[in-house]
Design goal:
five-stranded mixed sheet; Collagenase (Catalytic Domain); 9 strands; binds zinc ion
Length: 264
């Protein structure tokens, strides 16, 4: 066999291994057989004292509300796992993940996603990959002016990675958990359910699409907002007013998990 052929075979082997690892990981986390293993890694985005304080105060118990939300919502689809997710807070990192390309083409986005996965692999100390572990990088910001928008958070299904931009103000803590839950569900395969203008898509982005049109108080988690009486999209104040809608439940495999367990 020529060297060139061997090299191609090796590359194909690596590619096949990566594909089957992705598949295996997704199968593990979407089976809903046990708690999701979630590692939270805080990062001070702007080097501010406020972000440092938010990170110092961070505790696994802060994510109990996310777990309670997941437990309550998956139970609504007949899946009982308690805890639904176990969170561990890892030491803060002093480096930022590679930023996504601005308006990049498909190839640039693919390259960036590979770079991000390589960055995550290196940050987690290299070695054998921990299959099925979801890693959420929480990037804390302290804007100096009012009304500053955060960079877009994202959750990647391949590699089970979330890059979550949050405000360090303690008054934002409960809404931060909505963002954490949203990105966590992206890693399990849930898609966004809002239009480019931020308004929830109907019906999949509504918490109670069967109710007559009108103002709401509860949001579908992958829309992240409900339509208030003034017609604007409003973020609820906590996960207590968020639900996992039917389409999201299907995307994260809850209906299949239920069928596997009880037949039908
Ligand atoms: Zn999203």
């Amino acid at each position: 066999m020529t060297f060139r052929r061997i090299r191609i075979l090796l590359l194909l082997g690596v590619f096949a291994a990566a594909l089957s690892l992705n598949w295996l990981e997704q199968w593990m986390v979407r089976a809903w057989q046990g708690p999701l293993d979630v590692q939270v890694v805080p990062i001070n985005f702007d080097g501010s004292a406020e972000a440092a304080a938010a990170i110092a105060a961070l505790d696994a118990r802060d994510f109990e509300e996310v777990n309670a939300f997941l437990e309550r919502e998956i139970a609504g689809y007949g899946v009982r796992v308690s805890p639904a997710a176990s969170f561990a807070v890892k030491p803060a990192l002093h480096t930022l993940p590679p930023a996504p390309p601005q308006g990049g083409n498909v190839l640039q986005v693919m390259l960036w996603s590979l770079k991000l996965r390589w960055w995550v692999y290196r940050q987690s100390g290299g070695g054998l990959p921990q299959l099925g572990t979801i890693r959420l990088f929480l990037l804390y910001h302290t804007p100096r002016e009012e009304g500053v928008a955060l960079p877009h958070s994202l959750g990647l299904q391949k590699g089970l990675i979330g890059v979550v931009h949050l405000f360090s103000d303690p008054r934002q803590a409960r809404q931060n958990r909505i963002v954490v839950a949203h990105e966590l569900l992206h890693t399990l395969g849930a898609s966004d359910k809002y239009a480019p203008d931020g308004l929830p898509l109907y019906p999949q982005g509504y918490a109670e699409p069967e109710l007559p049109q009108g103002p709401r108080r509860v949001a579908e988690i992958m829309a992240g907002r409900f339509v208030a009486a003034n017609g604007e999209a409003v973020m609820p104040d906590s996960l207590e007013r968020c639900v996992i809608g039917a389409q999201t439940a299907h995307e994260i495999n809850l209906d299949a998990a239920f069928r596997n367990r009880f037949g039908g």
